[in-house]
Amino acid sequence: MPLYDFQCLDCGERFEALVLKTAASCPSCQSARLEQLLSGFSVSSESTRDSNLSAAKRKHAKVHRDYSMDMHNAEKNHHH
C-alpha cells in the first residue's frame, strides 16, 4: 500500500496519507504544498514487545511516583 508521511509546508501539520491516483493534501489546511518525509517501519517480535512493555511500566511508575509526591507536598503545604 502506498502510505506516505508528509509535512505541510504551509501550516506544519505532520500526517500520513494513502496516495493512490490523486495527490495528497493537508488534512488541516487542505494545502497541496507538502514535503514527503522518510517513513519508518516497525518490527514486532517478542523481545521488542517485552522491551516496550518494560519501558512503559518504568514510565508509569515514575509518573505515579511524581504524582504521589506532588499530592503529599500539596497536603503538607496547605494551611487552613
Topology (elements, then pairings):
Elements lengths: L2 E6 L5 E5 L15 E4 L8 H32 L3
Antiparallel strand pairs: 1-2, 1-3
Mind explaining what this structure looks like?
This protein has one helix and three strands, in the order E-E-E-H. It is an alpha+beta fold. A hairpin with a 5-residue loop joins strand 1 (3-8) and strand 2. The chain has two domains: 3-37; 42-80. The protein has a three-stranded antiparallel beta sheet with strand order 2-1-3, with no helix packed on it.
Order of helices and strands: EEEH
Mean pLDDT rating = 86
Strand order of the largest sheet: 2-1-3
Q: Into how many domains do the coordinates divide?
A: 2
- N→C terminal distance: 63 Å
What assembly state would you assign to the polypeptide chains in this entry? single chain
Based on Cα principal axes, name the global outline: elongated
Q: How helix-rich are the residues, as a percent range? A: 40-55%
Question: Using DSSP, what is the number of strands?
Answer: 3
DSSP summary: helix tally: 1
Give the structural class.
alpha+beta
Rg, please? 22 Å
Largest sheet: 3 strands, antiparallel
* Uncertain segments: none
Percent strand equals: 15-25%
